[in-house]
Design goal:
Length: about 325
């Protein structure tokens, strides 16, 4: 009788922990811990963490937030199994996908705008990208802003071989700029806004207008999404909640972001409007998950391959297979 009761209880427990999620996904268990990779950027993920939306979504689950200086380190962390989700600009993600990263792009934080730009010193005589020939510019290699810079140089017929590019992380760029070691910097906020006596000569918004859009994205590991699909939907819901706060209660969102990032509210507001925060509904449009996202990522992959940053030229199918909008659809009840 005791054995029968144990068996019945075990079966009941399995039934209650296997819950159907819209679209046929199922949850087999609840993780003991969820690890999320982030960066110090004014964005929806930062807002969701600061407002407690992540903690609320994963009530009772230990959540660890790991901060990275760049997307490449975040990609390596997922390859090593150290994170379940991570935020990054699209270039490191493209590199990871091309190298066999076992993860899916599930969320677009933003379409990058003026928050990633090329800055030069006031009074330096550098007015356009063409004037960078013979100059030193600091930029995080293989990042989205690196892509923006090089595509801009190409669009303005600049001889890239005559521009000395120095590979630096954002904190290193700030230090190099402060010492006067570089003539220009291609970087993102918050470092971009803290470069003294600087002016902007080219932005990611300009690059998008030239046909080279860039995005900030979230990737979830395949192991995690297959084991805990409902947890992925909860992540998406937390991100959307943050975006709706910014959309409907901008002043409150700015105040929270300013406190979290140790910025003035004016600085936080400027950075919050430096990119387009796409809502869940907007992300399903043709320009994004609804059609062109794989094409955009493939274009970046070709650029990285041509620049010698990828061993093999990636086909578009690997990017099509690395995108999964179903969690957004489920969060929206579609």
């Amino acid at each position: 009788m005791k054995k029968a009761i144990v068996v019945l209880l075990t079966v009941a427990l399995m039934v209650t922990t296997v819950a159907a999620v819209g679209g046929g996904k199922s949850v087999t268990a609840v993780p003991e811990k969820i690890v999320i990779g982030t960066q110090s950027v004014v964005m929806d993920q930062t807002l969701a963490i600061a407002k407690g939306y992540i903690e609320e979504a994963y009530d009772g689950i230990d959540v660890e937030i790991i901060n990275f200086d760049n997307g490449i380190d975040a990609v390596h962390a997922m390859i090593s199994g150290d994170v379940d989700f991570f935020y990054s600009g699209c270039n490191p993600i493209v590199s990871g996908i091309a190298a066999g990263l076992e993860g899916k792009v599930i969320w677009i934080h933003d379409l990058i705008g003026v928050a990633e730009s090329v800055a030069v010193r006031e009074g330096s005589g550098i007015e356009t990208l063409k004037d960078l020939e013979g100059k030193k510019i600091a930029v995080p290699f293989t990042s989205t802003v690196h892509y923006t810079l090089e595509r801009g140089l190409e669009s303005q017929d600049v001889d890239i071989s005559k521009v000395e590019m120095l590979d630096m992380d954002p904190p290193e760029i700030f230090a190099a700029w402060s010492r006067g070691d570089v003539d220009a910097a291609a970087v993102w906020d918050p470092v971009l806004s803290t470069l003294e006596n600087s002016k902007i000569i080219y932005t990611a918004e300009d690059a998008a207008a030239d046909g080279y859009p860039t995005f900030d994205l979230t990737v979830v590991s395949d192991d995690f999404s297959e084991a805990y699909p409902e947890m992925v939907v909860k992540y998406v819901e937390a991100m959307e909640k943050a975006k709706q706060l910014k959309l409907n209660e901008f002043d409150e969102a700015v105040a929270v972001l300013a406190d979290a990032m140790e910025l003035t509210e004016e600085e936080a507001a400027q950075q919050a409007t430096g990119s387009i925060w796409l809502t869940a509904e907007e992300q399903l449009e043709e320009a994004y998950f609804g059609g062109k996202m794989a094409e955009n990522l493939h274009a970046i992959g070709e650029y990285l391959y041509e620049g010698g940053n990828l061993i093999e030229e990636p086909g578009i199918e690997i990017f099509e297979n690395a995108i999964d909008a179903s969690y957004i659809e489920e969060a929206l009840g579609k």
